Amino acid sequence: MLFMSFLNKEQGVNVNYWGWDLKAVGSASPTADKMTVRYGDNFHIVWGDSKVTLKEAKNTMGDQVCHLIVVDGDHSKEGVVNDLQNFLDVAAPGAIVFGDDCAPYKRTVPQSEKMLEGWMEFVNYNLLISVANYRNPDLPSPGFVEGVVPDI
């Protein structure tokens, strides 16, 4: 909702949200319903396992590309790798990418270290430029990583 709040067609500010969600959390569907009512054709959600649905992102989005990507998937290395691989197919050069729970400081998410390994594969192969790891040692969260899609 934060990013969609910048939508202002009268002033030429066009924002589109494309989301892929498992629909496992009870609030997902009602929130999507509210977003659809408020933002209409600028809000798009695809329900299902991203290991399957995100492979079709390019077809689903048509000629649109992502300028901001947030990966908050199934909390496994494989999940991070799958989501990043598929998102990079629809990422604009210079797109900002966040990986949730991928900057372990405290181990509240058991797989966060493995998730970071998945993220680092993309950094090491120059598919992402690492910007920062955000961690707050006073919070139990393992934090998140930020990167940028290079202009290849």
3D structure, described in words:
With 152 residues, the chain is α/β, with parallel strands linked by helices. Helix content is 30%, strand content 24%. The chain has 5 helices and 6 strands; from the N terminus they run βαβααβαβαββ. The chain has helices at 28-39, 50-53, 57-61, 77-88, 112-124, and strands at residues 17-21, 43-47, 66-71, 91-100, 129-134, 144-148. The strands form 2 sheets. Strands 3-4-6-5 form a 4-stranded mixed β-sheet, with helices on one face. Strands 1-2 form a two-stranded parallel sheet. α4 (77-88) packs parallel to α5. The model has no long low-confidence stretch (mean pLDDT 90).
Describe the structure concisely.
The protein has 152 residues and is an alpha/beta fold. 30% of the residues lie in helices and 24% in strands. The two termini are 31 Å apart.
Which band does the percent of strand residues land in?
Answer: 15-25%
Count of separate DSSP helical elements: 5
Helix-residue proportion: 25-40%
Structural class by helix and strand composition: alpha/beta
Q: Note the gap between the termini.
A: 31 Å
Sheet with the most strands: spatial strand order = 3-4-6-5
Let me know the largest β-sheet: 4 strands, mixed
Compressed to H and E, one letter per element, the order equals: EHEHHEHEHEE
Give the integer mean of the pLDDT values: 90
Q: Count the beta strands.
A: 6
Quaternary structure type: single chain
C-alpha geometry = globular
Uncertain residue segments: none
Radius of gyration computed on alpha carbons? 16 Å
